[in-house]
Amino acid sequence: MEEKFAKLIIEGKEYKLPIIKGTEGEKAIDISTLRTESSYIAFDPSFGNTGACFSKITYIDGEKGILRYRGFDIEDLVENLRFVEVAYLLLYARLPNPKQLQHFSDMLTEHSLMHEDMRHFFDRFPRGAYPMSILATMVNALSTFYPNVDAQSMKENVGRSAARLISIVRTLAAFAYKRSVGEPVVYPRNDLEYCANFMNMMFDSPVKPYEPDPEIIKILNMLLILHADHEQNCSTTAVRTIGSANVNLYSTISAGINALSGPLHGGANQAVMQMLKRIEKGGDIKKYLERAKDKKDSFRLMGFGHRVYKTYDPRAAVLKKSCHKLLKRLKIEDPLLDIAMELEEATLREDYFIERNLYPNVDFYSGIIYRAIGIPEDMFTVMFALGRLPGWISHWKEMVDQPHKIVRPRQIYTGKRKRKL
Ligand code: ACO
Q1: Which residues, listed in sequence order, are joined to residue 58 by a DSSP beta bridge?
Q2: Residues 177, 202 contacting (CB under 8 angstroms)
Q3: Cα-based angle 220, 381, 334 (whole degrees, multiple of 5)
Q4: For ligand 1, which residues put their CB under 6 angstroms from it?
């Protein structure tokens, strides 16, 4: 018989805690009333063992290497859908029919232009400013251009707010790039689909028109789909946490962008490339493996390891395969791909990595693909943010659609006891 309660005995007293089950069989113990009943709290720094919400969006089995959005395997989604369709799926929990897709695409088109006054903001950032910081600032600034859009009205009109964000962030990202290379900005075009429009804004120039390559557009769709959601990761948790205070959606997403920029999170894709380049220069993979294993050294093998996956990250598996195919198709020989493969093979022979289940994650091969399609290194994490937008917004939407409270963990105080001045 299935247990409905877990029993906890503290100081001789028994507490019955409800057992919760998910649709894929994950189990949890509901401790939400534990403090009221016993004065004890659960202690779980960095939330490695804490379920913070019910969610119907994304399912991960970290032991088996499974990732599904709304029940569909990630491998099927990248094979058969475009990013805009997956964004719709995440946001509305269903695949769009042609009419719904047209309506969603029209809304993306309608909102692709930012307020012209915002364009001048770019002139004031220092040269060489980190694009993720620029992006987070600009997205936060959207809340000043749409000041009347509070959490309640956004909830009521989430489709418009989501479309505006997904569309404008793409424009902001491309403008930030053009500014960084000192070229005139290219405005979005209504006749181009989402990814082609982005590539055109990035690479079209008054002296050399951009010709979209369907293969590159397909790869970009795949990259964005692979990054579109990953349940309760650091940046999504930031979005849910900030959003729980009923903050305007733009400011909430800006917090997610900042969280993603960290090198332990989305910033790892750029750090991987820097690591591979350093290995290319110094030529010594062994030295990097020794450093990664050395507990006195803070160095970590970037693009390896994951809080949830204890086997190969399914996104990394798709990326590795695509990386080979794309480079062959574009006739590119990238020595960094050889180094990456050599590094991965070397870790498979090392007990340190085997014992700790450290395999390549989504950030390990993505940079080599971005590089092959012309995306500069300091834009890698911006690309991740562009892909993750539908996920962040879907989690925000899911949260505000349910009864929810402000997120507020507790602590165990370990400071000084009361003393006199
Ligand atoms: N290189 C060397 N050792 C590692 C690495 C790594 N990349 N990752 C984990 N370890 C080791 C830890 O030192 C620890 O060893 P110990 O048990 O002897 O102390 C053990 O493996 C477990 O690691 P934790 O830090 O406890 O794992 P956690 O779940 O907290 O961290 C994280 C996950 C942050 C992704 C970590 O693996 C890491 O720093 N990886 C490198 C950065 C990276 O690639 N980040 C991108 C992740 S994917 C994403 O966010 C999109």
Answers
A1: 69
A2: yes
A3: 60
A4: 264-266, 268, 292, 300-307, 356, 358, 361-363
Q: pTM here?
A: 0.95
Could you list the pLDDT tens digit for every one of the 421 residues in the chain? 678 999 999 999 999 999 999 999 999 999 999 999 999 999 999 999 999 999 999 999 999 999 999 999 999 999 999 999 999 999 999 999 999 999 999 999 988 988 888 888 888 888 888 889 999 999 999 988 876 556 666 666 788 889 999 999 999 999 988 988 888 999 999 999 999 999 999 999 999 999 989 999 999 999 999 999 999 999 999 999 999 998 889 999 999 999 999 999 999 999 999 999 999 988 789 999 999 999 999 999 999 999 999 999 999 999 999 999 999 999 999 999 999 999 999 998 999 999 999 999 999 999 999 999 999 999 999 999 999 999 999 999 999 888 899 999 999 999 999 999 9
Interval between CA 313 and ligand 1 midpoint (Å) = 13
Nearest to 267 by CA among 382, 365, 128, 126: 382
Distance 372 CA to ligand 1 centre (A): 27
Tell me which of 356, 366, 382 to substitute to probe ligand 1's pocket, judged by most ligand atoms within 8 Å of the beta carbon.
356
Query: What is the C-alpha to C-alpha distance for residues 258 and 253, in angstroms, rounded to an integer?
Result: 9
Q: What Rg value do the Cα atoms of the chain yield, rounded?
A: 23
Is residue 294 packed enough to be buried (19+ CB in 10 Å), middle (13-18) or exposed (0-12)? exposed
Active site residue 306: yes
Structure tokens at 289: 């493996």
Please tell me the residue having the least CA distance from ligand 1 atom 17. Answer: 356
Catalytic status, residue 111: no
Q: Give the 3-state secondary structure of 129-142.
A: CCHHHHHHHHHHHH
User: Looking at 204, 230, 363, 395, which residue is catalytic?
Assistant: 363
Q: What angle do CA 295, 296, 301 make, to 5 degrees?
A: 55
